[in-house]
Specification:
Blueprint lengths: L2 H11 L1 H13 L18 E5 L2 E4 L4 E4 L2 H4 L8 H12 L11 H12 L3 E5 L2 H16 L3 E5 L18 H4 L17 H4 L1 E4 L4 H11 L3 E6 L13 H14 L2 E6 L9 H6 L5 E4 L10 E5 L1 H4 L17 H14 L2 H24 L5 E5 L2 E5 L9 H4 L4 H13 L2 E2 L9 E2 L6 H20 L11
Parallel strand pairs: 3-13, 5-6, 5-7, 7-8, 8-9
Antiparallel strand pairs: 1-2, 2-3, 4-10, 9-10, 11-12, 12-14
Helix pairs in contact: 1-16, 4-13, 5-13, 9-10, 14-17, 16-17
The structure holds pyridoxal-5'-phosphate.
Amino acid sequence: MSFKIEYERFVNRTPNSCKLFEENKLFTPCGVHSNYRVHDPYPLFIRRARGSRIWDVDGNEYIDFNMAFGALVSGHSHPLLVEELKKAIEEGTIFGHESHESVKLAKILCQRFNLEMVRFNSTGMEVTMYSIRLARAYTGRNKIMKFEGCYHGSNDNLLVSVKPHLSKAGHMKYPIPVPATPGLIPEISKYTVVAQFNDIESVDKLFQKHGDDIAGVILEPVAMNMGVIEPDLEFLRMLRKLCDEYNSVLIFDEVKTCGKWFGGVEERYGVKPDLKTLGKAIGGGIPLSALGGRREIMELFGPGKVSHAGTFNANPLSIKAGIVTLEKILTREAISNAARLGERLAKGYRDIVVDYRIDAIVSSIGVSGAILYTSQPQVRNYRELLKCDFGKWFGYFISMLNRGIIPAATGPDEQWTISVQHTPEDVEKHLEAFKEVAPIIKKVEQPIGVVEAV
Ligand SMILES: Cc1ncc(COP(=O)(O)O)c(C=O)c1O
C-alpha cells in the first residue's frame, strides 16, 4: 500500500476534524492554539481522553503515545487525580494568597529533585525565562549560552537557534545565533552565544571568547526537542567545570526530563546544576511548573529585588495536582514499571527496523523514545538531526494514526511517552501497527508534509 492511499485514508477517517479545523481558522490563526500542533493535512480535534486512550471528534479511538508532549506520564485523567481535584475544586480555585498546601509541594519537589528552594509557575516557558533573569541578576552579566536545537519554551530570551535553517546557521562548532521568530529585538541574538550539543570543544572555545560575559548556560540535559539525544557524561561534567571556572550559572531545563526518571537528570547522570526548571509531568496534566536550585541564587527573588510574579502561581488546584501526582502516581516504582514498557517498545522497534531493513535509529531513555529515519550510525546534535528523513517520519505518523496509534508527539524531533497507565498490551498493539507500517515507510520518497513549528 502506498503512502498516498494512507493519506487519503486519514482524510476519510477524520471529516469532523477537518471541518472544525476549517472553522477554527476563521477565528484562530492557523486553526490551532500552539504552533506545535499544526501538521498536514490538519490536526486531530479531540473530544475526550482516559488512561492510555484518546478519542477524536470522529469517534476514532487511539492509544496515545504523545501524552501531551510528555506532560502526561500520569496518563490521562488518572483516577486518583480526578478524585482529589473534584474535592479540591469545592474548596476554591484560586485564593490570591498563599495556598496552605504550597509548603508541602515545595518540600516534595526540593527533596525529590535535590533543590534548596523553589518557586512555582504554570508553564515551562515562564520558568526558563525566570531562570535566565536570575542568572543575569546573580552574575551582573548579560550573555546566555544555549545549544543549537534545544527548545526552552516560547520566551523571547531563548527563541534563538531552535530549528535554524542550515543556510543561516554558520559553522557546526560555532553556530551563528539565528532568531527563531520575527518580532524579537535584534539584541536577543547579540546576547546569545550558541554552542553545539555534545561538543566540548565548541563550548570550551566559546567560553574562552565570551566567558567573562556569560551569565548562564542553559540546556536540555537530554535533548528532547531533537528526538532523544543523550548527553555524553563528559559533556555534562565539562559544562559544570566550565561554569565553575567562569562563575556562570548552570541551568538544566528539565521541563521534559523531570518526568523521565524519579529524581530527574541529576539522579541519572550525577551532575548538579545551579538551577533546574521543572514542568509538564509534575502537574499530572494540570498546568504547574517550578524553578528551583541553590538558595543563594533563588533568594534573589523578592520585592525590590528580582521580579517574579503570576496571578495563577501556586493556585490550589495546581498545588493539589502536584502533590497527588508526585506522592501517589509518579512513584519510583510506577516510573520504573513504565520505563520497562518503554524498553520493550524500543526493542520491538529496533527488531522491526532490522527485519524490514529500514534506515533508522531508535533511541530511548526509560519512558520515552524516538525513531529517526537516517542511515547515520548516530545522531548526537542538531546538525545530524537535520540529515534525517522527515518525509518518512511524516508517512509513519499518518499511517500509525490510521491504525489507531498516536505513535509520538507531533513532529519528527519529538518522542513517545509511556505513561503509568499504559499496559503491555498497549505496547504490543503499537508494535503490531509499526510492523504493518514498516513496508509503507520504505516507499515514502518525498516529504508530502513536514512538521515545522516554533
Ligand atoms: C525542554 C522544554 N523547556 C520548556 C518548554 C516550554 O514549556 P511550556 O510549553 O509549558 O511553556 C518545553 C516545551 O515543550 C520544553 O520541551
